[in-house]
């Protein structure tokens, strides 16, 4: 397999030796939006013979990356579990969003939205919430969003506590998106497609050399589809991402880029849990804790009320200069703004309506949020020799400011049942103003009439971070290396909520400083392999989500210390087969979160809890033969809530706190077993066939471990055919067996339904 030369200088992953590359995607679509839409087109990865190519010598399929990366050793010698989802896999699997791309990575689950948890990307990595641990080219991407991949080159997943790399949070790991940048050669690619469920997608990727040392690249996207198997749910979005690179070959380089995406959709409602009732007069109606067995298309929302509008704008200036002695200076400035505006119906089961009356309260979860960020990172990196010992280092300082304004919608008339003046629903229909509906066969087109206004209870959150970090890989000889890293964070966040006629003003403040560490000992028994023992930490201060997530700042937690996580990991990595074309990894690890925030014996929130995860991770990526490629892995997680604090078994007026009966239970949203496989076989030079599976065991939705979704295995298939060197076709069938499964579980009230079977046909054109 060959690949076009490319530079992607913004990755966490650096490669100073054992360089491995993979086909640069030319996922490109130039088609009038008025054309009949055709399904998502995967990038054509056939190399242009006019462009120099290199042989793939490693199987992890990473793009060449910059020496400015916070990783100071090749991936093979990095003492961490790292999975890179390359452009080739993203294209072949037909992924169109970040959550689609992460489906190929075991150990990651997607959480469901809830009242305090916004609709958007909500990842859990190794059992820990990673909602705030998404980065773009190594810089934190704040704000609740649903991220696209039309301008993404590859996705990097770093697992285990790693605040030394990214700062606050990162208890389970982080996700880094590497964006497409302008290259030194010209190309034009277009892809258009149609599919089932009104699927239409057009994307384009155009690159132009605009001078002897500069280039311009433009990525565009327009997308529309309904969710297979789900009534009403679906939407459309469009995006544009221009970038200019100055100084392609000189010692000084500047990359200027802009990204914009807008979306409009009706978000999904999911299916409520069949509540377990073990005591009281209604024990005979006890449910088994799984989602109700209703038709998979059941939608509990209101088509004329529910909506979600998002917008994301990011502007980046990336400057770097290489000195004569090999030292590289870099400065990156980024401004970003994201908006998440929605009314979304949660099928609420908290009042027992589902099991008692066969009804559902249409709880309106709403949010009007704007998050603005300004970041600046300055770093220095290079190699040096001291006393015969080689050092590969990267050190820098980061400054970041995030501002979030958050409000909610209020409705007239309200969303309670007017017959009870509460959210209990003994009946449903027009007399409840359609705020209550039936569990079976609800009508999403009920004539719900309302006026909507933004609440005056505006919450303003301002977060400032100042940090300094340093990393060093010390190579004593070809067999032994030590990796060291440290980061110091000064984290400040303030929250202010304006008063209303019925609510008082709220103010809270956190001022926290903390160190994060990583160290790893690497032994190389051969040049193509490594064995490592590593230790790393993370720190999660109160309010780390900047006011736009589940870990919100409150008066109750403002004086608490950061939650601390540490990870011990023993692993090995090997590039095997001729040319090192297949990468194999294995690791065993133990992660512990101390200082976890739980209820103390006096009813206050304190840092007295503890969580523990022990696990095993296996990974593989590359080519078994010149025709047969594989990508995937397996993760085992033994995730225990070791100390959940105390539980109130009394009343609000007379609380009685006892040791939590949930000690020893499993983490919510954490399967014990998860696995993924994507494999393709080139039957001929023109025809390729691919198959994939994603599998995970049952998952709990709450710490009680009495609400859960069953495990599942989903199969996908792909076939591509090159008509000639400029035109190729690709057929993707997702969820081949039309498996009913639940793919979003973190709310204790409902589970998100996975998409049903769908098919898309794409056409890729080079011109």
TrEMBL record:
<feature type="region of interest" description="Disordered">
    <location>
        <begin position="49"/>
        <end position="73"/>
    </location>
</feature>
<feature type="domain" description="TonB-dependent receptor-like beta-barrel">
    <location>
        <begin position="274"/>
        <end position="736"/>
    </location>
</feature>
<dbReference type="InterPro" id="IPR037066">
    <property type="entry name" value="Plug_dom_sf"/>
</dbReference>
<protein>
    <submittedName>
        <fullName>TonB-dependent siderophore receptor</fullName>
    </submittedName>
</protein>
<feature type="short sequence motif" description="TonB C-terminal box">
    <location>
        <begin position="750"/>
        <end position="767"/>
    </location>
</feature>
<keyword id="KW-1134">Transmembrane beta strand</keyword>
<feature type="domain" description="TonB-dependent receptor plug">
    <location>
        <begin position="75"/>
        <end position="173"/>
    </location>
</feature>
<feature type="signal peptide">
    <location>
        <begin position="1"/>
        <end position="41"/>
    </location>
</feature>
<feature type="compositionally biased region" description="Polar residues">
    <location>
        <begin position="52"/>
        <end position="71"/>
    </location>
</feature>
<keyword id="KW-0408">Iron</keyword>
<dbReference type="InterPro" id="IPR000531">
    <property type="entry name" value="Beta-barrel_TonB"/>
</dbReference>
<keyword id="KW-0998">Cell outer membrane</keyword>
<dbReference type="InterPro" id="IPR039426">
    <property type="entry name" value="TonB-dep_rcpt-like"/>
</dbReference>
<dbReference type="Pfam" id="PF00593">
    <property type="entry name" value="TonB_dep_Rec_b-barrel"/>
</dbReference>
<dbReference type="InterPro" id="IPR036942">
    <property type="entry name" value="Beta-barrel_TonB_sf"/>
</dbReference>
<keyword id="KW-0732">Signal</keyword>
<keyword id="KW-0406">Ion transport</keyword>
<keyword id="KW-0472">Membrane</keyword>
<keyword id="KW-0675">Receptor</keyword>
<dbReference type="Pfam" id="PF07715">
    <property type="entry name" value="Plug"/>
</dbReference>
<keyword id="KW-0410">Iron transport</keyword>
<dbReference type="InterPro" id="IPR012910">
    <property type="entry name" value="Plug_dom"/>
</dbReference>
<keyword id="KW-0812">Transmembrane</keyword>
<keyword id="KW-0813">Transport</keyword>
<comment type="similarity">
    <text>Belongs to the TonB-dependent receptor family.</text>
</comment>
<keyword id="KW-0798">TonB box</keyword>
<dbReference type="InterPro" id="IPR010105">
    <property type="entry name" value="TonB_sidphr_rcpt"/>
</dbReference>
<dbReference type="InterPro" id="IPR010917">
    <property type="entry name" value="TonB_rcpt_CS"/>
</dbReference>
């Amino acid at each position: 397999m060959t690949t076009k030369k490319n530079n992607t200088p913004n990755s966490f992953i650096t490669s100073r030796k054992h360089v491995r590359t993979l086909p640069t995607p030319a996922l490109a679509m130039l088609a009038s939006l008025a054309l009949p839409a055709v399904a998502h087109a995967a990038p054509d990865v056939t190399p242009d013979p006019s462009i120099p190519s290199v042989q793939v010598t490693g199987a992890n399929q990473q793009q060449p990356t910059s020496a400015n990366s916070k990783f100071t050793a090749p991936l093979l010698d990095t003492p961490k579990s790292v999975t890179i989802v390359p452009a080739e896999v993203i294209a072949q699997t037909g992924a169109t969003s970040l959550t689609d791309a992460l489906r190929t990575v075991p150990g990651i689950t997607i959480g469901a939205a809830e009242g305090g948890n916004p609709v958007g990307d909500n990842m859990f990595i190794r059992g820990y919430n990673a909602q705030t641990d998404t980065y773009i080219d190594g810089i934190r991407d704040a704000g609740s969003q649903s991220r696209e991949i039309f301008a993404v080159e590859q996705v990097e997943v770093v697992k285990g506590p790693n605040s030394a790399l990214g700062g606050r949070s990162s208890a389970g790991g982080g996700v880094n998106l590497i964006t497409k940048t302008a290259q030194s050669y010209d190309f034009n690619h277009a892809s258009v497609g149609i599919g089932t469920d009104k699927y239409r997608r057009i994307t384009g990727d155009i690159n132009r050399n605009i001078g002897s040392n500069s280039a311009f690249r433009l990525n565009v996207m327009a997308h529309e589809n309904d969710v297979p198997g789900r009534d009403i749910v679906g939407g459309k979005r469009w995006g544009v991402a221009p970038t200019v690179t100055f100084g392609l070959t000189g010692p000084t380089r500047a990359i200027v880029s802009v990204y914009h995406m807008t979306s409009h959709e009706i978000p999904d409602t999911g299916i409520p849990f069949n509540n377990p009732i073990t005591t009281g007069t209604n024990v005979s109606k006890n449910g088994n804790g799984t989602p109700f067995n209703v038709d998979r298309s059941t939608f509990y929302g209101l088509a004329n009320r529910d909506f979600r509008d998002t917008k994301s704008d990011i502007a980046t200036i990336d400057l770097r200069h290489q000195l004569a002695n090999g030292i590289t200076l870099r400065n990156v400035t980024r401004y970003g703004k994201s908006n998440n505006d929605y009314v979304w119906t949660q099928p609420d089961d908290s009042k027992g309506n589902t099991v008692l009356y066969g009804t559902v309260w249409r709880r309106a979860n709403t949010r009007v949020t704007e998050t603005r960020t300004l970041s600046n990172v300055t770093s220095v990196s290079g190699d040096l020799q001291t006393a015969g010992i080689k050092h590969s280092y990267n050190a820098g300082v980061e400054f970041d400011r995030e501002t979030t304004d958050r409000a909610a919608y209020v409705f007239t008339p309200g969303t309670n049942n007017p017959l009870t003046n509460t959210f209990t629903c003994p009946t449903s229909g027009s007399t409840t103003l359609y705020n209550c509906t039936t569990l079976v066969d609800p009508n999403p087109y009920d004539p719900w009439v309302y006026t909507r206004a933004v609440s005056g209870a505006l919450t303003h959150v301002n977060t400032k971070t100042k940090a300094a970090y340093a990393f060093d890989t010390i190579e004593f000889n070809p067999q032994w290396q030590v990796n060291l890293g440290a980061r110091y964070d000064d984290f400040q966040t303030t929250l202010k909520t304006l008063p209303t006629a019925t609510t008082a003003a709220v103010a809270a403040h956190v001022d926290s400083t903390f160190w994060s560490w990583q160290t790893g000992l690497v032994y190389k028994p051969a040049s193509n392999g490594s064995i490592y023992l590593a230790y790393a930490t993370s720190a999660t201060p109160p309010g780390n989500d900047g006011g736009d997530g589940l870990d919100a700042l409150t008066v109750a937690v403002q004086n608490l210390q950061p939650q601390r996580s540490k990870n011990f990991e023993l692993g090995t990595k090997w590039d095997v087969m001729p040319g090192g074309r297949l990468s194999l990894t294995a690791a065993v690890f133990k992660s512990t979160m101390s200082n976890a925030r739980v209820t103390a014996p006096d009813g206050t929130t304190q840092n007295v809890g503890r969580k523990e995860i022990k696990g095993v991770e296996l990974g593989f990526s590359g080519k078994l033969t010149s025709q047969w490629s594989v990508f995937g892995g397996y993760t085992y997680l033994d995730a225990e809530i070791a100390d959940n604090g105390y539980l109130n078994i009394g009343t609000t007026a007379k609380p009685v706190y006892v040791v939590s009966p949930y000690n020893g239970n499993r983490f919510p949203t954490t399967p014990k077993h998860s696995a993924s496989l994507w494999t393709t076989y080139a039957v001929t030079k023109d025809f390729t066939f691919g198959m994939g599976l994603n599998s995970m065991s049952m998952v709990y939705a709450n710490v009680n471990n009495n609400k859960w979704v069953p495990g599942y295995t989903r199969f996908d298939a792909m076939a591509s055919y090159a008509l000639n060197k400029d035109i190729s076709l690709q057929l993707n069938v997702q969820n081949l067996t039309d498996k009913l499964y639940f793919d979003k579980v973190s709310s204790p009230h409902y589970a998100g339904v996975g998409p049903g079977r769908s098919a898309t046909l794409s056409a890729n054109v080079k011109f």
